[in-house]
Amino acid sequence: MRFDKICVLGLGYIGLPTASTFAANGVQVVGVDIDLRIVETLRRGEIHIHEPGLRTLVEAAIKSGNLRVENLPEEADAFIIAVPTPFFHDKTGEYNGETYKLADMRAVTSAAEAIAPHLRKGNLVVLESTSPPRTTVDLVAPILEISGLKAGADFNLAYSPERVLPGQILRELIDNARVIGGVTPESAQAGYDLYSIFVRGEIVKTDATTAEMVKLMENTYRDVNIAIANEFSRLADRFGVDVWEAISLANRHPRVKILSPGPGVGGHCISVDPWFLVETAPDLTPLIYASRQVNDSQPHYVFDLVQRALGSLKGRKIAALGLAYKPDVDDLRESPAVEVVQLLQDAGALVKAFEPFKPVAGIPGIDAVPTLGESLADAEAVILLVNHSSLKDLSPEKLKSITPARILIDTINGWGGRDWEDAGFTLHRLGVSENRDNSKR
Ligand SMILES: NC(=O)c1ccc[n+]([C@@H]2O[C@H](COP(=O)([O-])OP(=O)(O)OC[C@H]3O[C@@H](n4cnc5c(N)ncnc54)[C@H](O)[C@@H]3O)[C@@H](O)[C@H]2O)c1
């Protein structure tokens, strides 16, 4: 199939790189976002998200005339839906007395509704948003069919999950293997033809529901494995063990690969997607549910660690370093670091948070300061919440020169293996028992 013009709905972390990569490969792209501020920002040649190399790519795409930014879709050969699929914060489902989170599919619904009037015979529609199983066939197809055209017969419809790693999106978009699931084999083939325009990794065709499951299985696998690492950190603490040493020793087993514990699981993927499986089959997912509970409670475990280190938190001055949900990105969605700061503030601590990738974080209720120096200047204790390179690399000498604090709390193994004690600091580490008997070493 030929694709001269495509419409990408949703110009965020996924849609914007996708739209500009298609444009860079000679396709006429209409990028669509309902947020007028985003539309205006992009039209000015600026971008609203941090991703290495993206600004240059977007600028070139707009300059070449191949990328145009609008707030409504229009006729095209293909439509890609890359809109958010978070969970609802204000409503939950219930099964056997346990509550679970519910997917908020309103953006997918309205994107499909916006495409329907422009749909023509022979078009391709691809859903990229991470979605509960059967969304493509049970939610998106019926909406598009309001056009009078039949999915799989008159137009092609497919689901293709995105696997890119924030911070590496532009490279991974091209190099990663991609799964494309069609509602018919012809739809999968049309999707294959579309992504072949720029994907160099393997493109594997399957059906739409399998492709949806693949994405959810990938992220759920990681969530469950992080949950077990978090439980190991709690056990290590109880038994006088350094969890980081124990994990590194266990991982020398040829078939074991334990992931890293931390302050919790955040972002819009791993902390969200397992709920899509729980929601659609609560009777079949007790392990996935339990893992979500463990990871969601980890910020509270970190809070307890801080309390053990400092005693009463009321009026205590704490520098919290890092707010993003993972290292070297600016994304604060569902971030456990933010939750830890909130818990500390609720307990009366005077927290100055610093996020190097979003110096003015703009989170309601969080006191974020624009510089590292400001966060540290009058702190009694410093808590490392995200392994951002610039924070992880702080040396004892450097830290000593910019803060009076001598109590450090490392929740993410960023500061292990350095001589903090020689420099006068007391370092508390997640998963490393305070009662560890070093005399036998
Ligand atoms: N960011 C990632 O690393 C990543 C990785 C894999 C999968 N995903 C999935 O991709 C999807 C998009 O994620 P994202 O991170 O790009 O989200 P995002 O919030 O960064 O961007 C989504 C954009 O869609 C816009 N939007 C909302 N409703 C719209 C509509 N009806 N029409 C047009 N635009 C609309 C929003 O204004 C926003 O700019 C989600 O389902 C997410 O789970 C994201």
Order of helices and strands, N to C?
EHEHHEEEEHEHEHEHEHHHHEHEHEHHEE
State the distance separating the first and last CA atoms.
66 Å
- The helix-and-strand class reads alpha/beta
Query: Order of strands in the sheet with the most strands?
Result: 3-2-1-4-7-8-9-10
**Tally of DSSP helical segments:** 15
Identify the overall geometry.
globular
The hetero molecules present are: nicotinamide-adenine-dinucleotide
| Average of the residue pLDDT scores | 95
The low-confidence parts are: none
Strand content: 15-25%
Gyration radius from CA atoms, angstroms: 24 Å
Biggest β-sheet description: 8 strands, mixed
Helix fraction? Answer: 25-40%
DSSP, total strands: 15
What does this molecule look like?
Helices cover 38% and strands 17% of the residues. It is an alpha/beta fold and 441 residues long. The chain has an 8-stranded mixed β-sheet with strand order 3-2-1-4-7-8-9-10, with helices on both faces. The protein has a 5-stranded parallel β-sheet with strand order 12-11-13-14-15. Strands 5-6 form a two-stranded antiparallel sheet. Helix 11 crosses helix 12. The site of nicotinamide-adenine-dinucleotide (NAD) has 27 residues, from helix 4.
